[in-house]
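Quick illustration, no need to memorize.
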Amino acid sequence: MPSLMEALEARRAEVLGQAERLREQIAGLSEELSRAEERLARLQIARETVEEVLAAPSSPVPDADAAGGGVGGVAVALVKAEAELDVTVMSPEYREIIALFATSGRRCAAKRSAST
């Protein structure tokens, strides 16, 4: 029959092992929690940025909403802006293309390449 001290030592070793396993789990969960909180922070920043952009007065989104909303609405707003010669809603690259067409002095047409 084991002595009382041996039984206590065996129980102590068992609880010590359990405590170590719990510490490892806590460390792993803490790392996982940190990663999740970082993703949440990035998502919050993205949301605030989108809200800020959509609220900007030069944004084509209000016109897009009136035209049906969504991506199609943005396209409608851009076509409307082009028809009205409103270049404030166009990208700089698109403005350059329009300026080239306007100043070329000749008729321009798009040409399809053989690869498409």
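The chain has four helices and no strands.
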